[in-house]
Amino acid sequence: MSRNIKVALATLVVSVVVLALKTAAYYATYSLAVMSDALETVVNVVTAVVALWAIKFASAPADEDHPYGHGKSEYLSASFEGGLVFFAGMAIAFEAVKSFFVPNTRLDVFNGNSYLVAATVVNLLTGLYLVRHGSKENSEALKASGKHILSDVVTTLGVFAGLVLVKVTGVLWIDSAVGLIVGLYLLFEAYKILKDNTAVLMDAVDLPSLDMLAEVFNTHKIDAVVDIHNVRIIRSGSFHHIDAHVVVPEYLDVATIHEMTHDFEKKVVRDYKYDGEIAFHIDPCKRKFCKQCHFLECKIRREPFDKLKISTQENMCAGPQYTN
């Protein structure tokens, strides 16, 4: 069993414990805000189960049916989590609005606070660990779970603050107002989760990954690689497939080009943050890149070398660019 799976399993157990604490807090207070908080934790439990499946599935190696691996299952898991958070937010907001017209006569703000404090501490430690571990292991499912749990900490603190206000002021509708704020906050969190993970599933451009790749390209740049353009990245969990066009001196033979670019590719993949592979499409220079070509052994140069072209996210994504 991999460490990521063990972490996901532990997260599931912790979510169940936190749900029990918040359920106890609700039956001690009958607070709408506490019920809203507990409902969000129900989402945590469900998504922990889905994340466990996604991480296990994502760890399977590439096969004939999934040549790029199974890593996108983590983004599906995170998107599913975002959908559940959205519906939880809608349900909480609906109940909160309804409670403004039907007062909660059973509210008891003097009990159950210890349960909320315990749940908050457990969630805070769990969320921070998941975000750190997920970032280290490049696991989108664990990072999404960690961020959601940390958002749960924020809502619990808000609920606790609302109970304190009700206790101090005696104004019961504050409990409903806090419940509504929790619901709206969850809707905003759901939007962020869905936006980020839908972008990956649609293979949207990932600027941070391009910046990292550009840095590695520049570190291992060789003279025979005159230009790199039309770079595309397909993200599959912690595995990235990279397509790129590479301009090389046109008079070099195929064997020499293959050896040079293959060595360059190995160094880039080794130092890139994510596991991955690179598929280079070789373009002949056609004597159009002389001013940025530092290949001193060139036999067909038309113009003297002027300046190396540094890889950036902008020029890597663009088509071939050369100085006339």
Give a verbal description of the structure:
- It is a single chain.
- The chain folds into two domains: 3-201, Alpha-lytic protease prodomain-like, CATH 1.20.1510; 207-317, Alpha-Beta Plaits, CATH 3.30.70.
- With 324 residues, the chain is mainly alpha-helical.
- The protein has nine helices and three strands.
- α2 runs antiparallel to α3.
- The protein is elongated, with a radius of gyration of 27 Å.
- Helices cover 63% and strands 9% of the residues.
- It has helices at 3-29, 32-58, 72-101, 113-137, 140-169, 173-201, 207-219, 254-271, 313-317; strands at residues 227-236, 239-248, 275-284.
- Strands 1-2-3 form a three-stranded mixed sheet.
- The relative contact order is 0.12.
- The mean pLDDT is 84.
Main attributes?
324 residues; 3-stranded mixed β-sheet; Alpha-Beta Plaits; elongated; 2 domains; Alpha-lytic protease prodomain-like; 63% helix; mainly alpha; 9% strand
**Largest sheet report:** 3 strands, mixed
Strand content: 5-15%
What sequence of helices (H) and strands (E) makes up the elements?
HHHHHHHEEHEH
CATH topology of the largest domain: Alpha-lytic protease prodomain-like
Q: Give the overall average pLDDT.
A: 84
Stretches with pLDDT under 50, minimum 5 residues: none
Q: What is the CATH superfamily label of the largest domain?
A: Cation efflux protein transmembrane domain
Q: What is the CATH class designation of the largest domain? A: Mainly Alpha
Shape: elongated
Please report the distance between the alpha carbons of the first and last residues: 57 Å
Radius of gyration: 27 Å
